[in-house]
Amino acid sequence: MNRSTKTALALTVSAGLALTACGGPKPTPGDRAGAKADAYAPVTVGKGYATKGGNINVLMSSDFQTLDPGNSNYVQTANVGQLYYRTLTMAKETAGRPPTIVPDLATDLGQASADGLTWTYTLKKGLKFEDGTPITSKTIKYGVERTYARDVYTQAPQELNSALADDGYKGPYSGGDFKAIDTPDDHTVVFHLKQPFAEFPALVSRSNTAPVPKDKDTKLDYTNHPVSSGPYKIKSYDRGRSMKLVRNDRWDPATDPNRPALPDTFTFTLSTAQATISQQLLADSDPTAITLDSNGGLQASDAAKLNDPRVKKRTAAGLLGCTDVLNFNTETIKDPDVRKAMALSIDRGSIQVQYGGARFGKVAQSYINPAQRGYVAQHTDLDPAGKPKLDEAKKLLKGKKVPKKLVYGYADTNARYKNVGTVLQQNFKKLGIDLQLRPIPAANYYTVLAGDQMPDIARSGWCGGADSGSVRTTVDPNVGPSLDGKTYGFSNIPRFHDPKIARAMYKLRGTNGTSEELGKKWATLFDRTMQDYPLVPLVRSYTSSVVGSKVRGAQMGYFFGAIDLSIVGAEH
What we know:
By secondary structure, this protein is α+β, with helices and mostly antiparallel strands. It contains 14 helices and 21 strands. The strands form 6 sheets. It has a 6-stranded mixed beta sheet. It has a 5-stranded mixed beta sheet with strand order 10-11-12-3-13, with no helix packed on it. A 4-stranded antiparallel beta sheet has the order 6-7-9-8, with helices on one face. α12 (472-479) packs parallel to α14. Residues 100-467 form the Solute-binding protein family domain. Residues 1-23 form the signal peptide.
């Protein structure tokens, strides 16, 4: 979660980006939330707009992988999901900063027991689904239970589940009672943990706790019409083509200070080529249009157009918590020295160019960064400017069995990702490796990476997990072990599993302490993990997103990596 065609959810904190010496275009001016000297302060279009009405048209190059809150680990789904479902707590976006965890369906952030092993939440009064039936503690519990049916929901978020007791539970379709959650009455939800978890209020902001009425559960078909608990509901959904959201008249704004719900409707077009999206937004051909596509749907060739004054005033921008990485399949590329050699040979500076240059992000040295709680210094032999170290790479490969052919998989909707593969082809050719490029349908991309068709190399992105300020919620999902500690974890795309490190991470999951104290231990283990090069950090994102001239309240979500749908409005 997390990813956008990045999974889950999901957020890290990153420092300001530096322009290259040759001088790229600077971020656009506007309603900046920071000091004038900060070239990368966030820019909001139409800040403070609060008028209800109108329509927002969301242009997207592909459909959502799922709309089912119980089967989603994707930031795009989380962004649109906050319109039609609510959770116990909510990650409320703030431009340029990690989100703040606030109460949503619950009255507060939860009450912990003295030993930290129990968290109790009380639901607000008057909560209803779109059909008028009450939202109760049992519907919250059932929503969580569904995410344990991993044989059905292959992309269910797992951060909350990994913290809860009752590891043996297999979901509501397999029988048995889920003992990790009690519902003593209709308004009380009690969670039982294996061990204290410092960031637990953030875990229940994940889509696991979106309520689901048991009698409306259609398993995998639930994605076609998840029952709304939020300000909007799905009126129509034509998979791969379009979707329309209209107001949910059973939603009570008095219970929801987080969502102003300004537009009357949201319409989604789900199969527009990214180049077309970019052209339409730049030309303002639809004054109510936005996009959720990564990098605002902009192509690298569009960067100079952002300096046009007519475009500048319609451009929301901000530093994100999202970082793209290259994952090495450690089951097919087993030798850590071979992986390190491949990492050193990569021209990450050229890959940055494929992302649009310094304006669209900086070369990253790690998935984690100094602004996160408990960060400790990370050690890497990668060049900070992204230059390849070919001589060092070749020395590492002496006497090694070097793979002759490897496969790089990429999402087929974005030319940038294919171009990254072309750069890698050129880099690895110098090591005697023939890299083949395999397009993967974007709608199935992360499903493929999680399955037995995972290629040797694949790009992915992460926006920090349930708590963007926490080291743990980046490290554990991406390189941590499975729930039982015996193999690699659910979101661990490189399939990294070192028994010693896995044991230490598994033990750390249950260790008492503050987020800061535990973060140092996670960061230390991550530093050790990265000496084996299961993945290579590429680019940390700075995103500019052009919106239509009638769009207001357009703010770049630090976690979402796109316009925050919960606060956007339309002049009408």
